[in-house]
Amino acid sequence: MSDQDWFDFLDEIDSAIEKSGPSEIDKEKALMKIRTLSSNLTKKVYQCNKCGIVFINNNRLEVFRPSSDSVNKKLLRSAHGDKWKGFLDGDWMDNNPVWRVKGFIAASCLAEGKQYDDWEILEKEYYLIFNELREKNLLRSSSLKKNGNVLHAWKLTDVN
Prior knowledge:
Largest sheet: 5 strands, mixed
Structural class: alpha+beta
Helix content: 25-40%
């Protein structure tokens, strides 16, 4: 989000807190207005953790290459650093012609997703990663699906 838009965003949050009506519907409308505004004001920015190239998507992809090899490759990392609460997603499809493999696990703690051709191995590794991230208090949400059916779903808000 640009610094120019940041204050508009904060003003909208203040307005939602101070001026939204008393009902749950009023509060939900104010929340959705903030979410829509945040989506409209932000640009998607990614940094490759291997080479340090920065990609900005603002209706077209812009690429910024580092001027040296000693670039900070964690430039866009969360302010929480190693304590950021991430995600875990596992998915399996017996018959999906789009995927080259039957299953995968994606997690914020993994540099890249893992692919699987064996459901039992995927399921076992999903729960190992899930338990490890929960024990370390590094998990925001997780889900495990098999053929479109949700077998496991967890959110941090479920325990608060």
